[in-house]
Design brief:
The structure is a single chain. An 8-stranded mixed beta sheet has the order 1-2-4-3-5-6-7-8, with helices on both faces. The protein has a two-stranded antiparallel ribbon with strand order 9-10. Helix 2 (79-90) crosses helix 11 and helix 8 crosses helix 9. By secondary structure, it is of the alpha/beta class. It starts with 16 loop residues before the first helix and ends with a helix. 37% of the residues lie in helices and 16% in strands. The relative contact order is 0.18. It has helices spanning 17-27, 79-90, 120-132, 145-156, 176-183, 189-209, 216-220, 225-236, 242-249, 280-284, 310-322; strands at residues 36-41, 47-53, 64-69, 94-98, 137-143, 164-170, 262-265, 289-292, 303-305, 308-309.
Amino acid sequence: MPIISSGYQAKGPFKSGHFSTIYSAKLRPTPSLDQVRKRLELTDGDFVDVDWSYHISELKNARKVAILLHGLEGDAQRGYMKGHAKQLTEGGWDVAAMNHRGCSGEENRLYLSYNSGRTQDLAELIDHVIAKENYEEITLIGFSLGGNLLLKYLGERRIISHKIVAGIAISAPVELQSSLDVLMRKENRPYSLVFLKDLRNKYKRKMKLFPEMMSQEKLNQVKTLLDFDNIYTAPAHGFENAADYYEKSSALPFLPNIKIPVLLLSAANDSFLAPPCYPFDVAQNHKNIYLEVPNTGGHVGFHVSNSEYYSERRVVEFLNTIT
């Protein structure tokens, strides 16, 4: 498909990618949204908590559901998750916002947790929705890490349910190694330090549950995000090391296999993304890949006003054109 010409242009201080990223993540008023938490027990004995929001209509119940996937160390209560869920429920969709393992406020039961490419939990949630809920259409929407995750899910499986009609990935680091390299640059150090603090704290909490596999000595070695992936993420999830994890978990090699319409929305001034995360060559030669790269927007930003973000409106517009 041709590259989509974007209708978004940030105004004022939001022209800065850093300002857009930080404001949207830390300063934006959280949209009001009713959520109902339901726990999904997983086949390996662990669980994920899913926060549901429902389209309310006096005429009929929603016959379609959007599954939302948050980014690294996020949760379903983040402003971008609630903002998109609110727009979707107003547009006729129910929403199932999945908290990755250990991200719902309660530690998960197993030593492993979640990562950028582990699609098993998403697959189990989709299977549950198909088996237990009477929806005619399912769409998958992911942000940052969650965007990479859903794209990998769609591309790695030879067969997916006919009920899955679309995917949308916002600010997705589809090539993980280069994205990490960018994130670890000096100008992006404030972001990497925030992630690192959260991950180290999670390691400390898990260490109490798995003292035979985790230790203060190992934690003391974690000085960077790369260290964390080498010391915990890779061994916990069956990879040789961080490089092996990045290579096998990146969605980029799986994009050519996607068989349903997907929208990739990433700002050109996203300081989390490297050039390989903008797959222009794939989109130009693929009938199902729609790539939109506005000049501004930062990382999961796209501010229009506190009550509306361009990405929220764009998601509903895209779904209305293909469903």
